[in-house]
Amino acid sequence: MNAMTGHLRWPLTLLLAALLYGQAAWGGSRVVDVHAEVRDGVVFVDADLVISPSQEVIDAMRNSIALNLVIEADIAEPREWLWDRRLASDARRLKLEYHALSRTWMVTDFAARETHTFTDLSGAVDSLSRIRAWRLTRWERLEGRDRLLGRLRVRLQVNKLPLPLRVPALIDPAWDLDSDWFLWSLSGDRIE
Amino acid sequence: MRRGRGIRKVIRRLIPVVSAMVVVLLLVLLYLVSDSLRAVEQPEGLFLTLLGASAAGLLFLALVVVAHILRLIRDYRRGKPGARLTARLVLTFVSLAAVPVVIVFYFSLTFVQRGIDSWFDVQVEQAMTDALSLSQMSFDGRMRQALDDTRRAARQLRDGGSELIAIELSQIRRDTGAQEMTILGQRNLIVASSSDDPKDIVPARADESALAHARSGRDFIGLDPGGDGNLQIRVVVPLEAGLTSEGGKRVLQALFDVPGAANELSKSVQAAFDDYRELVFLHKSLKQTFSLALTLALLLSLLTAVWLAFLAARRLLSPIRELASGTRAVAEGDYSLRLPVDRRDDLGQLVQSFNTMTARVRRAHDVMRELQELADKERDYLDTVIEHLSSGVLTLSFDGRVISGNSASQHILGIAGDELFERNFEEICEEHPNLRPLCEAFEGAVEDGAPHPGETLEAQVRIMNGSGRKVLLARLAALPPGSDAEVGGYVVVLEDVTALIQAQRDAAWSEVARRLAHEIKNPLTPIGLSAERLRRRILPQLDQTHGPILDRATATIIAQVGAMKQMVNEFAEYARPPEARLERIDLAALTAQVVELYRGNTAVKVRLHCEAPEPLWVDGDANRLRQLLHNLIRNACQALAENGPVDDEPRVLVGLRVVGEAGDRLAELQVADNGPGFPPDMLDRLFEPYATTRPKGSGFGLAIVKKIVEEHAGAVHAWNADEQPQADDSTAGSLLANRGARVTIRLPLASGREDGARDPAAPGSRASMDGRGAE
Predict the structure, then answer these.
(1) Could you tell me which residues come within 8 angstroms of residue B294 by beta carbon, excluding any fewer than 6 positions away?
(2) Which of A101, A117, A163 comes nearest B269 by C-beta?
(3) Is B270 in CB contact (< 8 Å) with chain A?
């Protein structure tokens, strides 16, 4: 077993490295953690994302192309024989762009109607990746349900891209900034 | 099955409509795509929806076109009418449409690519970059002053007390002219803040890296575009106050406005620079997008052209296809087809002409069929007439082959149909020597090429067949020549005139006999009486010399008158009108009685051979039949006595049997002898009066026999056994070794009484007629 592990160690490491490199080259997004809690009868959601724009995307941004992301979240009641009943949903639109004159990165939160400027990209991306105190819905809409299922994802708004970029953005993995749905379960008396 | 076909038909009809709609939709979509290339603001997803719909429409159109092409290939391989023409037309249409479209496509693509390339220029790009740098430099002085002011403010704040720091900050901010000043403490908590704008409650926060920069003891200065695009100068400096232990971690952030004009100009430069950079970055993608749109347009044009070419070819060729199928139907004999005329152009006229032609052909065909039926009927009529003619009719080909003939001809010639038809007449004559005279009669004439049409050759020939000698009147005529070599030849008409000639002879003889009897019988009595009177009166008076002379003379006269009386009586008997009294009699018993009378005859042995197993009931006159038998037996005996038998013992055998099929049965009485037979030259005239070979014979014996037979509706036939083609199959024939003369009489059996076993007279008569028993 150990021998086999020893034999497999290098290939596995190389594979992992290739995957990591591929992920870095192609970019991508994922939801790392979501935390929801009820305060004052409102469901607040905190989410941690990992957004890794590829070099191609960074180049596009450096050439004055803004990146519009939307973070979608909803809470549904799962049902056995029917589709899940959607109880609450919301979307949060964010924009990341480069300001050539000031050499800064700007993150605009359309929901909060505020713009933050960052001197470097990582700061801007970190800002995007941290969702805090998002008012998703009122608790009374969810009350009394036995089981609740929440989900959240981040998606690149291809339609907001300049027209010539839309088709490449649809087919090019470098532009694939959409994450999978992150699911978490909620119970009526406890929200995690 | 029918339902499925109906649905398929509906789908087939719907496809062109749907395709037309798709083409229109695609045109609209392409317009919208090109429009969306220009539009800055557009609804979300419009472009992609348009693109997807266009792709789906093109796919549908491509499928329709591929289906058309596959169908054309299938039709082409099957050699369906119109397929080659359709292929040619489609190719022509497509090439007509494709060439200009491809040319336009090529040049459009080239122009687009070159046009986009021409937007970009190295100098312009450099100018844009320079403009941006210039804008940045234009802020440098202001930024430096802002930094100085902030540093000074930091120094002043460092000196101030912590309780009054907010007031002090506000004062310093007003002094420096900053738009906003904020002191940030540990964990970036706001310690104090002062803003020019009273509505601005929450101060604008610097990013982590700027704060970290300041905390490390260095000043941070930079431009901040802000949310509304108005530039601000952001300065973050360390605030080294000694008031608190953690004062070293405090930083001062100050925001300064830039002059409005500079701000506007810089915004303009920024916007132009952004647009230009974006264009530069996207020009490749832009070219691809334009190429894609142009390719879509090209594909749409080509597919529509191909599809329309198929539609046009189908529409153009539908009458030709119908004409082809119509021609095939006419070739197969269906003249009822009428093609629909739904257009007024040249092809419509062609279809109209085709319909007219078909109608005429149909009429002609109907007339022809009626004529054919009429001809068939006439031929059947003629066949029936010919078949039931008593005359034999034969048709011969030019080389003498028998082609057809009626049943009378077979009957007259005594040959079955299978021996007659499709055989050369010469061969038939060779196989049947009795027909030889018929062949000889026309042999020369046919070989000379005669007769010519309209001419008739006639010949009377005598032939032998199973029922005796026959006199035939044969006529040969040439049939009208036909265009075909098979048509034409000769027709031979055979008439059996045997009975006619015989009847004529009989009638003549009857008349002669009646007149002779009448004319001779009357003077004979006075002659005889006178001779006897002369003898009675004169003879005693004569002397010895003359007496014997008169005696001999009168005796001769009386004897000859007696002989003449007998002859006249026989004449009278022959000419006597038939007055037979017919009654039902047993012919076997009667024959046995008559034969029995000759049993004592020592010179000739007369015997009866009865092969009939039952009493032979016939309707007849017993006396006349006895006379018939006597005549025949006496005739045979006399012939044997005069000529002697061909073998040792002179014998006369009387045979009796039943011949013929059930329902048409005849009693056959045959008198046979073993003499030399009838002289061949006499055979035809045996039954005529005076037909005798004997010097003393009156020649009325057989003539009377024939008359009696005819009175009984029978037939008599005399023949020589050794001349007959078929062997005499009777018992008498076999006993006499097929030699000698034969007279055969056939009488009809009494109707309904053939089975005479129940008749009470039968047992007694059977014993006496059994010739073999008597022998």
Answers:
(1) B105, B108, B109, B112
(2) A101
(3) yes
DSSP per-residue codes, A40-93: TTEEEEEEEEEEE--HHHHHHHHTT--EEEEEEEEEEE--SSSPPEEEEEEEEE
Tell which of A65, A94, A163 to mutate to test the B interface (max B CBs under 10 Å). Answer: A163
Q: Does B398 touch chain A (CB under 8 A)?
A: no
Taking each helix axis from N to C end, the angle separating B622-643 and B701-711, rounded to the nearest 10 degrees, works out to 150
Chain B residue at shortest CA distance from A107: B227
Contacts of B203 in chain A (CB under 8 A): none
Q: What's residue A13's pLDDT?
A: 60
Q: Do B285 and A165 touch (CB under 8 A)?
A: yes
Q: How far apart are CA B204 and CA B194, in angstroms?
A: 11
Nearest to B207 among A103, A117, A166 (CB): A117
Entry pTM: 0.51
pLDDT at B40: 53
Q: Which amino acid appears at position A124 of this protein?
A: A
With beta carbons under 8 A apart, name residues in chain A contacting B235. Answer: none
* DSSP H or E run through B474: strand B468-478
Question: Is residue B342 classed as helix, strand or coil in its secondary structure?
Answer: coil
Å between B49 CA and nearest CA of chain A: 11
pLDDT in tens, chain A (192 residues): 344 444 555 555 655 555 555 444 567 889 999 988 888 888 899 999 999 999 999 999 999 899 999 999 999 988 888 888 888 899 999 999 999 888 889 999 988 888 888 888 998 999 899 988 899 888 888 888 878 889 999 999 887 888 778 777 878 888 888 999 999 887 655 444
**Residues in chain A closer than 8 A to B225 (CB atoms):** 99, 101-102, 104, 106, 115, 117
Q: Could you identify the residue written with the tokens 């200065």?
A: B221
CB contact under 8 Å between B274 and A159, yes or no, is: no
Question: Which residue out of B48, B274, B276 would a mutagenesis test of the A interface target, given it has the greatest number of A Cβ atoms within 10 Å?
Answer: B274
Torsion angles phi and psi, residue B690, rounded to 5: 65, 10
Amino acid, single-letter form, for residue B712 = H
Closest residue by Cα to residue A137 from A80, A186, A69, A82? A186
Query: Contact B476/B490 with Cβ under 8 angstroms?
Result: yes
Q: What whole-number distance in Å separates Cα of residue B173 and Cα of residue B165?
A: 12
* C-alpha span between B433 and B421 (Å, rounded): 18
pLDDT of residue A47: 92
Helix axes B260-331, B346-387, angle to 10 degrees: 20
* Alpha-carbon distance B25 to nearest alpha carbon in chain A (angstroms): 21
The pairing of beta strand B402-405 with beta strand B392-396: antiparallel
| Contact (CB, 8 A) for B716 and B705 | yes
